[in-house]
Write a structure and sequence with these properties.
heterodimer, A: mainly beta, 4-stranded antiparallel β-sheet, 11 strands, 0% helix, 54% strand, globular, B: mainly beta, 6-stranded mixed β-sheet, 12 strands
């Protein structure tokens, strides 16, 4: 089975721009979660999608949004980028065992 | 709301000595707890998980963790550190309430000295 795939691997944007990150889960997994990872802050939960519905949402501003498609692929969008949005964004999928997350390698976003 | 706290941001041990990475959780109900490991430039990998079947949980690569409700702790241990254990470790949990949100601690960077 192919693992969780995140694209692109690296992104450089400037303040005020918007960005879309993509995540393809493991085949058969219907749950996709997104996390923001920064040094010192650890992993901050963004949101979780299950069968195209947002099941959980973390404490991030409305500039952060996501969606899930019928094939379970998910996208995350950040609008009006700020310098503080620079981080590694990780996507994870899970099957029936919800705490058994399979993580992608992440998208490293740099906002200049 | 449940949260997990990793008490050390950095831990340094010598190869062959025991490893102890500390994690406390706050919750009024039995949680589902787990430990993940992240090696440099790689995604996170599940080490072990606790789901109330047994208080001592054995994971991969010789790691284990003990759930202590009286201390609200779920510390990760390994009897003898290897160089390959150098990585960042994340403790996390899922609340048993309706939200069932997965949350992680801030991470502990483990350094193994030769």
């Amino acid at each position: 089975k192919a693992g969780v795939t995140q694209t692109p691997r690296y992104l450089i944007k400037t303040r005020g721009q918007q960005v879309t990150l993509s995540c393809s889960p493991i085949s058969g997994h219907r749950s996709v979660s997104w996390y923001q990872q920064t040094p010192g802050q650890g992993l901050q939960f963004l949101f979780e999608y299950f069968s195209e519905t947002q099941r959980n949402k973390g404490n991030f501003p409305g500039r952060f949004s996501g969606r899930q498609f019928s094939n379970s692929r998910s996208e995350m969008n950040v609008s009006t980028l700020e310098l503080g949005d620079s981080a590694l964004y990780l996507c994870a999928s899970s099957g029936t065992e919800r705490e058994k997350l399979f993580f992608g390698s992440g998208t490293q976003l740099s906002v200049l | 709301a449940q949260s997990v706290t990793q008490l050390d941001s950095h831990v340094s041990v010598s190869e062959g000595t025991p490893v102890l990475l500390r994690c406390n959780y706050s919750s009024s109900y039995s949680p589902s707890l787990f430990w993940y490991v992240q090696h440099p430039n790689k995604g996170l990998q599940l080490l072990l998980k606790y789901t109330s079947a047994a208080t001592l949980v054995k994971g991969i690569n010789g790691f284990e963790a003990e759930f202590k409700k009286s201390e609200t702790s779920f510390h990760l241990t390994k009897p003898s550190a290897h160089m390959s254990d150098a990585a960042e470790y994340f403790c996390g949990g899922i609340s048993s309430g309706s939200a069932r949100q997965l949350t992680f601690g801030s991470g502990t960077q483990l350094t193994v000295l030769p």
